[in-house]
Amino acid sequence: MLLTIDVGNTHTVLGLFDGEDIVEHWRISTDQRRTADEIAVLLNGLMGMHPLLGEELGDGIDGIAICSTVPSVLHEMREVTRRYYGDVPAVLVEPGVKTGIPVLTDNPKEVGSDRVINSAAAVHLYGGPCIVVDFGTATTFDAVTARGEYAGGAIAPGIEISVDALGARGAQLRKVELTRPRSVIGKNTIEAMQSGILYGFAGQVDGVAERMARELADDPDDVTVIATGGLATLVLGESTTIDVHEPWLTLIGLRLVYERNVATTT
Q1: What distance in Å separates the CA atoms of residue 88 and residue 75, rounded to the nearest whole number?
Q2: Of 185, 194, 140, 139, whose CA–CA distance to 166 is shortest?
Q3: How far apart (Å, rounded) are the C-alpha atoms in residues 165 and 38?
Q4: Predicted confidence pLDDT, tens digits, the chain (266 residues)
Q5: Angle (deg, nearest 10), helices 71-84 and 36-47
Q6: pTM of the model
Q7: Which residues are catalytic?
């Protein structure tokens, strides 16, 4: 079994792979204050009763792959692998780790590891050219060329960030449930906010993706647009450019990077 861990700014997603199949997954909040020991206790609670694993922490885990956008959490994760999974091969995605994706940006080290991982999975699953739209704390757009190169991307405020900001800065506004309103023309304040959020972000996704597609290929229809991230389902039904939804894209990418790196060292 391969344990994959994607540490984001808001949530941490864990996936358990049996070969190429993801057989279990969990989503927890990301807390920069958690120590390695606390993380180990949390992992034990999540996996301890799983029928495919043993009762002791680490039983049944043959490998670990981790990426993190939060440096302090990556440090603690490194300690977790050292103390509690010492005999298990572990790949922590950072500069020097083989991803199979050439990064063509001005400073490749600035690109978040999750974005490179997503690109690797997208190329593996759908080929290039493609665009990955990741709905997380930020909404990120990652462009991948026909040759499987990371060309660059765009970063916009995430849906929840925008909702929180609107509620905090608007004197008569408040945080609302992220759901589809009855119509685009809201009949009350809550529906008006929901309409602006949902259709506004759908329009943003379509606008950015269409422009990227025109730069990536002579025929924009040749570009596959892949949605992932915790809030992707909110926009899927309203976007006209998203071709496919892959909720476990980052975890699949972690599996691929683990296989690429462990195979070259064993």
Answers
A1: 17
A2: 194
A3: 31
A4: 899 999 988 899 999 999 999 998 999 999 999 999 999 999 888 887 666 665 555 567 899 999 998 999 999 999 999 999 888 999 999 888 999 999 999 999 889 899 999 999 999 999 989 999 999 888 999 999 999 999 999 999 888 887 777 766 554 556 666 778 888 998 888 888 888 888 999 999 999 999 999 999 999 999 999 999 988 988 998 999 999 999 999 999 999 999 999 865 54
A5: 70
A6: 0.88
A7: 114
